[in-house]
Amino acid sequence: MIDTGTKPKRKVYSSRVKFQAVLEVIKGKSVGEIARAYGFHPTMFSKWRRKFEEQGYQVFDEGKKDESKNKIDELTRLIGKKEVEIELLKKFVGSGD
């Protein structure tokens, strides 16, 4: 086997998958059974469950933060674009004197 020197990428699970896994264990399925079904290591599940227990409903606000951040970034870019347009218009109007 050839070692390329790069580490394998970790799989990232969505909030929905994490929630579904925790919910199934709460309903009575074993952690091992759920880990095999979803393809993650059982130790990952303990982190997800602890986060769920500590943060409760706030765990599900994760996507909303991303949406808000994206909106802020979009609006910041728009403001920058408008500032450039304003400066160009000022120069255009000022050069007509």
From TrEMBL:
Pfam families: HTH_Tnp_1 (PF01527). One of its GO terms (biological process) is DNA transposition. It comes from the Bacteria. One of its GO terms (molecular function) is DNA binding. InterPro entries: Homeodomain-like_sf, Transposase_8, WH-like_DNA-bd_sf. This is Transposase. It comes from Candidatus Roizmanbacteria bacterium CG_4_10_14_0_8_um_filter_39_9.
